[in-house]
């Protein structure tokens, strides 16, 4: 009986500790955005999102994207630089290249895409996506070379086919 009471008490302490741990995670407070100027609300929520992202590179790139495209380029670039300076996979650089492209910085994006493709020469979807961007930029020869490589790497990838088709119709790949 005494062991049962001790076990129950331990379970209660353990469960209440988990509750405290969950409540300690940062969450949005209305004061961050209610009545705030749009820029201030955005900055406040981005700061929160960055804390919520913790060490996740995908998540941090997502936060940096909003900073970068939202006119706060220096803050976004600082996060990109932190992600790339640490241990990261090729996909992180690829996602950052997409942001640069979305920002209209095609030279910067293309350089990163080329490095990614050099390290991942059989990534059918990436080949097709980068080819689509080339076609949309007016470089049909490069685009079709990349489409050829994409379809040779994986001949039945619907998404690769869709990206190529969209580019011929002026539609950028969906990210």
Automatic annotation (TrEMBL):
<keyword id="KW-0802">TPR repeat</keyword>
<feature type="repeat" description="TPR">
    <location>
        <begin position="90"/>
        <end position="123"/>
    </location>
</feature>
<protein>
    <submittedName>
        <fullName>Tetratricopeptide repeat protein</fullName>
    </submittedName>
</protein>
<dbReference type="Pfam" id="PF14559">
    <property type="entry name" value="TPR_19"/>
</dbReference>
<dbReference type="InterPro" id="IPR019734">
    <property type="entry name" value="TPR_rpt"/>
</dbReference>
<dbReference type="InterPro" id="IPR011990">
    <property type="entry name" value="TPR-like_helical_dom_sf"/>
</dbReference>
